[in-house]
Amino acid sequence: MSTCCISGFSWDGTPSGREDKSHNINYYAAGDNKEVAILFLHDLFGWTFNNSRLLADHFAQEVNATVFLPDLLRSGHVLKLFSPSFDGEVIPEDAIFNPEKKLKIDIGAWKERHGKEIRGPAIHVFAEKLKKETGFKKVGAIGYCWGGWATFQLGAKGKNLVDAISTAHPSFLTKEEIDAVAVPVQILAPETDGQLTPELKEYANSVIPSLGVDYDYQYFPGLAHGFACRADTNNKVEKQGLERAKNAASSWFAQMLHIQ
Fold it and tell me: How does residue 201 score in pLDDT terms, banded at 50, 70 and 90?
């Protein structure tokens, strides 16, 4: 993981959803569909990041689903730049446009505190709640950046936790996780990405079509890691890419999650 994961822009707009708590996990929710749900797995900026909440609102409306954006980092605190010593933390939102603050963030140390083995169990618990305890007939998962790897884990063989997944510029995704996926997959892939490398793109495009699941690979030339959730909306190319990405994900879930 590099500084590309904490680069980008924050967007104007006021989220229209609500906050609640389940299984001791705070979450933001948008929409009121009783049969279709989408689990939104956020990036390093956490569940309160305005961009993520606006995207959740969009999916709730366009897909006709209830979207859940849980606090995957158990973020009782915003990251203390010099001596983080607590369980949960998010990258401060103003680090996006503050180069001095961005330089003080030790991404490697952050990764160690929030690895898959540490944050994965809570993600699985929340997904299991949606699938098995709340009455939703169809559940999808979408993950951005840090949250991308978890979509593949939730969609793995034998899990029966989600019915379809989408991910934009996922971080930490492995070939083994790609091999194990067993539900329809959508990948939103920028041209430049130090995490979703050309090798990993090629591997996904070679392996997933052989797994017997629906697969939608969307390539975004001229764009880089983070564009789908932190694009500069004043930049024509980035704005068009953002809109295409969110509309592609909406169309994907509308097809995959709504009962015919």
Answer: very high
Cα 114 from Cα 218, distance rounded (Å)? 28
Average pLDDT score over residue span 182-187: 98
Between CA 204 and CA 200 the distance in angstroms is 6
Cβ atoms of 69 and 42 within 8 Å: the answer is yes
Residue 28 CB partners (closer than 8 Å, separation 6+): 15, 17, 18, 19, 47, 48, 53, 56, 68, 69, 70
Q: Which residue has the higher pLDDT, 88 or 41?
A: 41
Q: Using one digit for the tens of pLDDT, what is the confidence trace for 16-71?
A: 999 998 878 889 999 999 999 999 999 888 898 899 999 999 999 999 999 999 98
**What is the CA angle 161-166-172, rounded to 5?**
90
- Single-letter code of the amino acid located at 75: S
φ/ψ of 139, rounded to 5, equals -135, 130
CA 191 to chain centre: 18
- Its pTM stands at 0.86
- 229 close to 148: Cβ distance less than 8 angstroms: no
Which one-letter DSSP state was computed for residue 17?
Answer: -
